[in-house]
Amino acid sequence: MVTLRKAKCYRRIKRAYTRKSKFKTKSYVKAIPQLKIIRFTMGDQRKRRAYLVSLVSNQDFQLRQNALESSRVFVNKHLHDNLGLNYFFRILVYPHHVLRENRMLTGAGSDRMQRGMQKAFGAPVGIAAQIKNGQKVMEVNVDEKDLSIARHLLKKSTARLPGTYSVIVKKI
């Protein structure tokens, strides 16, 4: 089974190479991998709360969907365990950028079997969200008594995400 490459292989934002072929069917990505993020809004969204705690990016990079889903599960589980349904949690970025990989053979004798191709189009292996400096990634709407819990959980969730972040608290 093929495992995922390290996140540093996909972290840098660059425009994807677009293949131009005289055959129309070879000029676009045929299948986009399925979205792994289950839901983008969690908690009780009917009630407005006094504080908004946001996770804001400090640099430009790409954020793969499995890192975003891992962070979402962590934050939502601990918010639900500590606060019940007295919160509103949202993911604000959507992974839309298709990541492609031209898989190469490795091992003994692989140098004689495969040489690769210049500007190979590659097969889709995942999708990522392109994050800009100062962009909000996720936010939690809580009451004043739950403010420290929300801030702590968003700060701890950054260990599951690439890049550097800051937690910003805003009174609504």
Structure description:
This protein is of the alpha+beta class. The chain is 20% helix and 27% strand. The protein has a domain at 49-101 and 122-172: Alpha-Beta Complex (Aldehyde Oxidoreductase, domain 3). It is built from three helices and eight strands, in the order βββαββαββαβ. The strands form two sheets. It has a five-stranded antiparallel beta sheet, with helices on one face. The chain has a three-stranded antiparallel beta sheet with strand order 3-6-5. The chain is elongated, with a radius of gyration of 20 Å. It starts with 40 loop residues before the first strand and ends with a strand. The model has no long low-confidence stretch (mean pLDDT 87).
Nutshell version of this structure?
The chain is an alpha+beta fold. The protein has helices at residues 65-83, 110-113, 147-157, and strands spanning 41-43, 51-57, 61-64, 88-91, 97-101, 123-131, 136-142, 165-171.
CATH fold-type name of the domain at 49-101 and 122-172: Aldehyde Oxidoreductase, domain 3
Tell me what portion of residues adopts beta-strand conformation: 25-35%
CATH superfamily of the domain at 49-101 and 122-172: Ribosomal protein L16/L10
Number of strands: 8
Instruction: Give the C-level CATH assignment of the domain at 49-101 and 122-172.
Output: Alpha Beta
- The number of helical elements comes to 3
Main sheet strand line-up: 1-4-7-2-8
The name of the CATH architecture of the domain at 49-101 and 122-172 is Alpha-Beta Complex
Largest sheet, in brief, is: 5 strands, antiparallel
Q: State the order of secondary-structure elements, H for helix, E for strand.
A: EEEHEEHEEHE
Q: Structural class given helices, strands, pairing?
A: alpha+beta
Low-confidence stretches: none
Q: What is the radius of gyration?
A: 20 Å
As a percent range, the share of helical residues equals 10-25%
